[in-house]
Write a structure and sequence with these properties.
Number of strands: 7
Distance between the termini: 23 Å
Number of helices: 14
CATH class: Mainly Alpha
Radius of gyration: 19 Å
Largest sheet: 3 strands, antiparallel
Shape: globular
Strand order of the largest sheet: 4-5-6
Strand content: 5-15%
Number of domains: 1
Length: 368
């Protein structure tokens, strides 16, 4: 991407995030609808760390204290809720604590951030099913379910192993990744969302469509979670199996994109008429594609970097709210699934958009 264009975009982004600090106040944002106002969700909701993650990345990139000040207490509030409502937390503690406690410790050396991050890693490790070699998704009666999203959460376990020197966290993360590779990714690089196992024997039962259209469809954000997640696993392990898996998913994702490089909410919709895009899937994939570009030999880099830059340019020019200062989100036209949060703004889409742009500007710190 042209350096002048990138710097111009980053300048607009700084102005946007500064306005968001004032607009959001103490809210924990998840989704913004047509009115452009982000909601305020409970701290145990899976997206509760992404706003703080935005602030920490902005601080790391700029050194401007107001970003750090706005982010500082987020992991404190997260832990308070974790103590009060532990039963409401699940596999997504990776999303929640990587973007708050872990990055806080990584940037500032804060000892309490380290402790909170390790507590979250212990909680996540406790969800590992030994018979099936998978991390359990959600709570309640879903004892045999695993989901593609957790390919992003395993980074918390890899981080914990690197931090403590204890290989058990990494061993769990690798086993879960191998299971997801076997049952969560199809031969053509498309992905399943929910994978079901017998929780006692570990035997594979079936896959569900989950947030996608159908069991045999490909939910575009699930595909992007896998793309980014397997690239992360390769970064932590150096095991080329995971890089090849990330590339296989990336090839499917890139090939399935429409002309403007931002996917519809599912890649196998029966008709595109009236169907919504998912800018969050595009942003996640762009960040993951840049991870792959960093990992492959020089002759392959442009394939993945160019795809990421095409996505980011389209998001910047066609999906961003630069001309809507009262809008509290950065990206428009995101979709949670085919039944909820249709054509909205989603905070994790905003986060991964910023993460990807930061990588293009040389950001080397990794929390996922």
């Amino acid at each position: 991407m042209d350096k002048a264009y990138l710097e111009q975009t980053w300048s607009k982004l700084e102005g946007k995030v500064d306005r968001m600090i004032a607009q959001l106040g103490g809210k924990t944002p998840h989704v913004a609808g047509a009115d452009g106002k982000y909601d305020d969700t409970p701290m145990e909701w899976w997206t509760s760390g992404f706003w703080a993650g935005i602030l920490w990345v902005m601080y790391d990139m700029t050194g401007k204290e107001h970003y750090k000040e706005a982010a500082w207490n987020w992991d404190v509030k997260m832990e308070e809720r974790f103590v009060q409502k532990a039963q409401n937390f699940h596999h997504d503690v990776g999303f929640q604590f990587l973007s708050t406690a872990v990055i806080k410790h990584a940037i500032t050396g804060d000892a309490e951030g380290l402790r909170r991050g390790l507590d979250a890693a212990n909680f996540l490790a406790s969800r590992f099913n030994l018979a099936g070699n998978f991390l359990r998704a959600w709570n309640g009666d879903k004892v045999g379910w695993s989901i593609i999203d957790s390919m992003m959460n395993v980074s918390l376990l890899f981080w914990a192993s690197e931090t403590t020197g204890d290989p058990r966290y990494k061993q769990i993360a690798v086993r879960h990744s191998e299971t997801t590779m076997k049952y969560g990714v199809r031969e053509d690089g498309s992905t399943n969302h929910i994978i079901s196992f017998d929780p006692d024997t570990g035997e594979y039962i079936e896959s569900f469509g989950g947030q996608g259209l159908a069991p045999d469809s490909t939910w575009s954000r699930g595909n992007s979670w896998a793309l980014h997640g397997f690239a992360n696993v390769y970064r932590y392990t150096g095991d080329v199996r995971f890089l090849n898996e990330a590339k296989r998913v990336a090839h499917y994702f890139i090939a399935a994109l429409p002309d403007d490089h931002v996917p519809y909410w599912d890649f196998r919709l029966e008709s595109l008429e009236g169907m919504s895009r998912d800018s969050s899937a595009a942003a996640i994939a762009a960040s993951g594609l840049l991870e792959i570009a960093d990992a492959v030999p020089a002759g392959e880099k442009r394939l993945y970097a160019d795809a990421a830059e095409r996505i980011l340019r389209s998001l910047t020019e066609n999906y961003a709210t630069w001309d809507r200062p009262d809008h509290e989100a950065i990206l428009l036209h995101a979709t949670g699934s085919g039944t909820v949060n249709i054509d909205t703004s989603l905070i994790y889409g905003d986060y991964y958009y910023i993460e990807a742009l930061a990588k293009l500007r040389g950001w080397k710190r990794r929390i996922y």
